[in-house]
Design a protein that fits this description.
single chain; mainly alpha; 2 domains; 88 residues; extended
């Protein structure tokens, strides 16, 4: 039992250290930059802010933002599928 607890604590410690190093890496910074410029994020923020302004309900604003983000994601998938069908 004590050995299991130690192994869990060691894993958590390792995970924290790994995440700290990863967040300082170029890969993480590149990912963050791409995400902040993405259409999905823009759609989420726009819908979230509009619903929050209109209703004042954060939970409803989150749901609206997720729906807007999912809509953009699905439309991108459809564009990719249709593009692949056009290619010879």
């Amino acid at each position: 039992m004590r050995e299991d607890l130690l192994s869990v604590l060691e894993r958590r410690s390792y995970q924290r250290a790994y995440q700290k190093v990863y967040r300082q890496s170029l890969k993480w910074k590149t990912y963050q930059k791409a995400y902040h410029q993405s259409e999905e994020r823009k759609a989420y923020r726009k819908a979230y802010n509009q619903v929050l302004k209109d209703t004042g309900d954060k939970e409803q604003a989150k749901i609206s933002g997720k729906q807007a983000s999912n809509f953009v994601t699905e439309s991108k998938k459809q564009k990719i599928i249709s593009y692949r069908q056009i290619e010879p």
